[in-house]
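All the exercises in this workshop are built on plain-text protein records. A learned vocabulary of local backbone shapes supplies the integers on the structure line. Once this layout is familiar, the rest of the handout is easier to follow. An example says more than a description, so a record of this kind follows:
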Amino acid sequence: MTTETTTSLAAPGWRAVNLDVLKRIEALPSLSTVVNEFLELTRREFFTAKDFEAVISKDQALVARLLRVANSALFGNSRRIHSIPEAVVLVGLENLKKIVFSVSTEGLTRLRLRNYNYEPSRGYWMHSTAVGLAARALVEMLPQKMLHGEEAFVAGLLHDVGKLIVDDFLDPTAGKRPITLAEEAEAAGMNHAELAEFILQQWRLPETIVLAIRDHHGGDESAAMSDGAKILQLAQIITGTWSIGRGEPIDLSADFDPTPHADRFATLGLPLGKTPQLIWDIRQSLTGLEKLYPED
């Protein structure tokens, strides 16, 4: 008989959580604490390279990666870069974001899923990154900023993190295939979105990110669904056009038809006339995605 315990979670109505599930959550590689501080910094209207130094210097792995990139042939600098502010100015904010989130999720990116139908070596993380990039592009296009751009990216990047736990409880003899929420709950006691809420609470990520991920499988009838969840849903629908993470190489040539999703766009205040520009922006952000996660 399996031993169960009840967790002390903020939200009411949580199921009793299997002790084996809790042990796997505790063993899951955590995010660097720098992520929260970095998110807070990028919310400011004004910030300097010295502001980033104060945050980045707390994570030596992040400092090492930043300086290595700044001194690489990619930037062709004639002199050696030794300081964080110099490196931040040289690589630029967009590259800095990629470095921060890449290093912060490095322990997670090495994990492999046995049962979900992703490309084996890196499909899960390419899918997650694609949803994050699409969510950020979508937020930047909206007339009202319902979610900060970097919050949208992190929400997309981590929206399926619960699958890293559920995967251990699924029957591997069934082979790689789509897994329903009901199957997840039967196997692990919670589906991956519910588990993600618990995990992200432990990591103390902003509530906007936690709610977006918790509700990203909610139905259209859910009036209480957070704006972040609506953004994640639409980002998944758009990136699903190209089946990113299901196989390689990535093919972005398929056209996305926004018409069946007009209500979703309307709810976010985005007219269909603006979707061609949105899809172009998303395609641009996804180009070269394979380079973010080199094969082992």
